[in-house]
Amino acid sequence: MSSVEVVVVDSDQVKLTWNEVSCWDRQGLQPRYEILLVDAHSLAVAVNLSTNSSPPAWLYALHAYTAYTVRVRYANEHGTAPYSYPVNLTTLPARAYHLYLLIYFTNIDCDVGHMQWLNVTGGEGLTPPLPQCIAPSHK
Known about the structure:
CATH topology of the largest domain: Immunoglobulin-like
CATH superfamily of the largest domain: Immunoglobulins
Radius of gyration: 26 Å
CATH architecture of the largest domain: Sandwich
């Protein structure tokens, strides 16, 4: 098996693609691909699956910001080919959630405050806009 490519999609999922074995090379037999994903630090097998479907394969429920090694091999009823060369990958860090306390005023004199929690996702430094206090009109 050659040319295994990995696209890290998120903190817990990756997309694998590889070159399929040609019909000629597999002699018309139904292909099966075996995927082995190993945690690079603990060497524990994270995913060991077999699929009859063509690439791509999606691997879910992985740990955030974790290094893995993935290998793919072809198999049929006569045996299995050697695994591909290992491909190293690291999942993305977990998404950051920032929590802000927004205080806003509802009466015209701006002396009655209310609080509201806002859950803002995204990068660093995001600050929700504060509503403007409208000054009372004097007659």
